[in-house]
Amino acid sequence: MDLQQRIEQTDWKEIAESLNNKGYATVPQILSADECDGLRHQYGDDTLYRKTIVMENHGYGMGQYKYYNYPLPGIVEGLRRMIYPNIAPVANNWMQALGIAKTFPGTLKELTELCHAHAQNRPTPLILKYGKGGYNAMHQDLYGEIFFPMQLVVCLNQPGQDFEGGEFVLIEQRPRMQSKAIVLNPGKGDMLIFTTNFRPAKGSKGYHRVNMRHGVSELSGGERHTLGVIFHDAS
Ligand SMILES: O=C(O)CCC(=O)C(=O)O
Ligand SMILES: [Fe+2]
After folding, report:
1. Whose CA is nearest to atom 9 of ligand 1?
2. What confidence score (pLDDT) does residue 57 get?
């Protein structure tokens, strides 16, 4: 099965329910082991990237990441373009539930045009690399006025085999309540779709905003790579 077939065969209704109820969803085995290895092995090919960030230099954690250049590698471009139309309706429902006058277009092409019209021209998909002691501090990826409220990661190594620790962590900040932590352990090739900034949650008086941040817990050993796909471009 190729990537397009895997995406077409995903149960997007179930994903939408999970995103609505929990703010995240897991899609197992969106990439094959070979596809994961291919992306990982290109980490050293600097012609593919526009910028390298050493996380400890910015207080972002410990590890490094590289932003891809346009044109994106086929798998990265394909994931971004083919997944977007399946979750744009979820984002539109969220805006409506929260009374925010914002609609996201139906295709990635249109979202990209909207970003460009707001001087957000730089691609945001990235590949990350953490070693022993590596971690990613809790954060949100916004990058400008136009931001799509969901993003995805694909884990490119096998936990327990290639690395230890290094769980994916979400913190849900609920109004007038203490925060809730969600710890996920995606396997190699598994995709997580999650809330970038906030989502609606139903309370006794209608919907309210629940803020989310994401990060990665400390690795106790090994090496962990992640592909991250953010749908909006950066200013
Ligand atoms: O390495 C991870 O799992 C998190 C990556 C991340 O923060 C992102 O892709 O935005
Ligand atoms: Fe992030």
Report:
1. 228
2. 97
